[in-house]
Amino acid sequence: MGATGFGYKIAKKFGLKINPQRAGLVPFVFNSEDQQKFGQLRGISIFCRVSNHQASFDENILFTHKGLSGPAILQISSYWNSGESIEIDLSPNIKITDFLNNKKDQGTKTTLKNTLIELLPKNFVATFFDSDILEKRVCDLAIDEISLIAKKIHQWLVYPQTTEGYRTAEVTLGGVSCDELSSKILETNKVKGLYFIGEVVDVTGWLGGYNFQWAWASGQVV
Q1: Which helix (H) or strand (E) holds 28?
Q2: What whole-number distance in Å separates Cα of residue 83 and Cα of residue 162?
Q3: Would you indicate the residue range of the signal peptide (predicted)?
């Protein structure tokens, strides 16, 4: 019902509240600046922490020819609104200041580039940082330089231009408001004998089969 719009038409006909719909669990499209910089990284995957003001997910991101995908991106997309940023921690389990300071204290003469590729993909490192800083030896890095490198890795702010929309989305956000339905049998409060289930209702689960389970479980209730 949610896929065809039929369910929304029925709900509207009976005067039920319908919350705005949009694509959820969907990849992001880079803005033009990021597309120019990162478009060449298609296929690279990195374990990250992706966050915004509502949620945070520790899973992989995947660079595509258009932008970012992968489990962490799909998850956070359901909490993202147009114009907002997402924050990506590219090293959620290793504190970069400690990592680089330890290398510096050991007198490591390896370049920053060759040191960072212990943690991150080589092509990504070469694209993400300016070549000047990458060619510096770790033992020669100043404290403020290490701090800036750490901030860049732990707090990468991305401003998506948009999402890929329903073409690649796994679910629809929004739909018939739960306030209109009985929480026990999913019958509408206004019209006896009228029920709404599955994706047409404003219920969205995380990635991993939860939306299928909601569809099956809500259908079983009715």
Answers
A1: strand 28-29
A2: 8
A3: none
Return the domain boundaries, the chain: 6-24+170-221, 26-169
What is the DSSP-derived secondary structure letter of residue 118? Answer: T
Distance CA(190)–CA(195), nearest Å, equals 11
Q: Which CATH number fits domain 26-169: 3.30.160.20, 2.130.10.10, 2.40.30.10, 1.10.3720.10?
A: 2.40.30.10
Give this prediction's pTM. 0.92
In which band, very low, low, confident or very high, does the pLDDT at 3 lie, cut at 50, 70 and 90? low
Q: What are the φ/ψ torsions at residue 55 (nearest 5 degrees)?
A: -155, 165
The CB density around residue 189, as the number of other CB atoms within 10 Å, is 11
Q: Residue 136: exposed, middle, or buried by beta-carbon count in 10 A (0-12, 13-18, 19+)?
A: middle
Report the distance separating Cα 212 and Cα 199, nearest Å.
Answer: 9
Q: How far apart are CA 69 and CA 164, in angstroms?
A: 10
Task: Give the phi and the psi of residue 152 in degrees, each rounded to 5.
Answer: -65, -40
pLDDT tens digit sequence for 77-104? 999 999 999 999 999 999 999 999 999 9
Q: Are strands 86-89 and 67-69 parallel, antiparallel or unpaired?
A: unpaired
d(CA 174, CA 204): 8
CA distance 156 to 23: 24
pLDDT tens-digit profile of 37-60?
999 999 999 999 999 999 999 999
For 85, counting Cβ atoms within 10 Å of its Cβ (0-12 exposed, 13-18 middle, 19+ buried), the class is: middle
